[in-house]
């Protein structure tokens, strides 16, 4: 568990042309809930421009919110 319990995590694909190769996660904030939610919102707003594969808001190690949102489409 983190010092504050809330984290904002971003990921970039190792190989943008092959997403099955996985992604490198980086914690961009480890903060209290209010600050983490603010950083999450700002990070999501810039995610596509920054080339992030995904952004996660986590509390106690569990995903609370995520970008991109689920599309609802299944195969």
List the helices and strands and how they pair.
Layout: E1 6-13, E2 23-31, H1 33-50, E3 54-59, E4 62-67
Antiparallel strand pairs: 1-2, 1-3, 3-4
The main β sheet shows up as: 4 strands, antiparallel
The overall strand count is 4
The helix tally amounts to 1
Rg result: 13 Å
- In order across it, which strands form the biggest sheet? 2-1-3-4
User: How many structural domains in the coordinates?
Assistant: 1
Please tell me the overall pLDDT: 90
Query: How are helices and strands ordered from N to C?
Result: EEHEE
Beta-strand content bin: 35-45%
- Spans of 5+ residues with little confidence (pLDDT < 50)? none
Structural class: alpha+beta
**N-to-C terminal Cα separation, in Å?**
35 Å
From the spread of the alpha carbons, the general shape counts as: globular
State the helicity in percent bands. Answer: 10-25%
Task: Describe, in plain words, how this protein is organized in 3D.
The protein has 75 residues and is α+β, with helices and mostly antiparallel strands. Helix content is 24%, strand content 39%. Strand 3 and strand 4 (62-67) form a beta hairpin. The relative contact order is 0.25.
Task: Summarize the model shown.
By secondary structure, the protein is α+β, with helices and mostly antiparallel strands.
């Amino acid at each position: 568990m983190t010092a504050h319990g809330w984290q904002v995590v971003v990921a970039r694909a190792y190989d943008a042309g092959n997403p099955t190769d996985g992604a490198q996660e980086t914690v961009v904030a480890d903060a209290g809930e209010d600050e983490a939610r603010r950083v999450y919102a700002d990070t999501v707003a810039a995610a596509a421009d920054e080339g992030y594969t995904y952004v996660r808001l986590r509390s106690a190690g569990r995903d609370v919110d995520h970008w991109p949102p689920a599309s609802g489409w299944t195969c």
